[in-house]
Every structure is written in C-alpha cells, then in structure tokens.
Amino acid sequence: MTTISCRKSVQFVASGNPKNGVPELASFVKSQADSIQRAGWKVFLSAVDDRTSIRGVLRNLRRIRQEVARDNPEIIHAQYGSVTAALACCAKGRLPLIVSFCGDDLLGTPNPGLPWRVREKCARSLGLWAARWAAAVIVKSRNLFEALPQELKDRCTILPNGVDTTWFFPMDRNACRMKLGWNLEAKIVLFNLSQNEDQYRKNPVLARDAIAITSHRIPTVALKVMSGNTKEEVRWMLNAADCLLVTSLHEGSPNIVKEAMACNLPVVSVPCGDVVERLDGTYPGKICPYDAFELGEAIEEVLSGGCRSNGLEQLSLQGLSAATVAERLIRIYSSVQQGDSGTTEWYKTACAE
Question: What angle do the packed helices 114-132 and 82-91 form, to 10 degrees?
C-alpha cells in the first residue's frame, strides 16, 4: 500500500527529550512549529535525546527513520547542526533536507581544554557534512554566515528566529513582580544563563563584575539569573525586570534579546551575534565593549532613566514576529519543493518587502 504524503508538511529534527511519547523540544523550536502550523503547514516533530553515545545515536537514527516513514513529510528540517543534522541527513532518504545552524554548532563552545576542542570540531564537521547534502541552509545571523565554507554560502539564507508577540508583550511591571515574589523597589537586571555546559560561553563572571560596578551608585541593584525557567516565568521576568544584560563570548541570534525587545525591556550588551543589528534604533539600551566598568556605567544609565524601551516597535520594523518569520520560512520550503534552494539574494529580497 502506497502512503500519500501531505504537500505541505515538514519533519523537524531537533535536540530534546521525549516525554510520554511526545518530544520535549526547545521553546524556540516549538514556537516555530506552532507558527508554521498556523500558516497552514503540518509539522511533525522528532527529538534527538542522545548525541554523545554511539548506542544512543544509532537508537535515535532508527527511531527517526521510523518516524519519517510513518509521517511521510515533504521536507526534513534539522533545527541544529552537529549530530542532529547528521541524523536528519541519514534518515531523510530521498526527501529534501534543510539544515539550520544556530550558533555553537558552527562557532563551537569556548570551554577550555583539549577534550572540548576535539568534541566541538567533530560536532561542527558532522553538521557541515550534513549541510553539503542539504537542499538549503539557514543561519540565524551574519556572523554564522561568514563562518560557513564558501561552497555552502550560495544556498544559505540568513533568517533569525521570530518572536511570538502574542505571548511576549509589555505587561504591568509590579503585577509581574508580585507573581514572582520580587521586591517592588529593587532595580533588577536579568542575566540569561544556560543549564548545561554552555554556561562558560555566557560569561557570567563579567556580568557579576559589571553589576558590582553599578552597585557603587545604585545600592538596590540586584542580578536575577534566568536558568531553566518555564516560558510563562520568562515572560513575567522580562516584564518585571528593569534591564537585560548580555555578556556572551559569542552568540548567533540570541532569542532572549528579541523576547526582551518584545516586552520593551532595555538591553545592555556586548557586541555578540546579531545583537548590534537587533538593537539598532532601540532605546534606552547600549552596546558596550567587554569591559566591566563600561557595562556597569551603561546599566546605571538605563536604571537611572527608569524607562521601558521601544523594542517591540523595532522588532516589528525588522519583521521578526513569529508569523512574519514563518512566512519567510515557508517560502524556503516552497522553493525547495520546486527544486530550488534558499539563497542570500532571496533573503535580501524578502527582507526588503
């Protein structure tokens, strides 16, 4: 019996832990899947729950192949490079593959030590191998595009993740603080710290040093660390805080910055990933060098002003709502279905519309 595929269907392959048979994926992956489905496409989800052991990788490959055969999508979309993209490539059969690179999968994790360097080099090589078999490649920022080998740039599109502005939007500051149990009088600076080995890249030492500088003039300043919070808690925190601080050694297109913009939360950041581009025209807020004193002074300036930013307006002008990004992504899917690939020229044209 022949299975008939859905003409508008895509299989997402992403890192995550299946729970009760349902893939538990990163919030940005689920948000993108939701926005694509609202635009009329069917999205199937495959979670990669082990990228380090040979047994786990083979088990995931077998399961993803079974899911692809069962779901019969038109396109396979790997939502990350590394082992995730390699598994998607091995499971795709004759289906067209799209590989998205997010940051570490191209730039590596700057953790010290030879084992990390070997691991990151192997992971990057696997992702690039898969991308060479892909019909189209997506990167989230210009610095990731520049990190690609030249032969992949011709079929690469720069497309940051969008923000669900029906979820992340300005809310009452004090009401959100009461939900979180935060002091209503404190000057609160948020810092996003990963739960895993990625913490070194976020550069928390510089963040703490910057806050120490700020505290000399604003004694009520407090650093609140975000790590493993629910999507609802993140929304409350972005609206309850007075400033977001970013000190990462490198990034792609950090979702937390765009989510902060959607909540009109001022951002003080070092020049990492596409943050300079995202914050262009957004005020108050500031881009600073990797210097605790300058960051601390910028935070003091934002906190003393006590104003929210125009981030949501700028996010809209940049066309980075989840719905708008979904439309652009669907154009890539349609192009791939027609035998073409997403290109940098397509991206420039799409963004000019």
Answer: 30
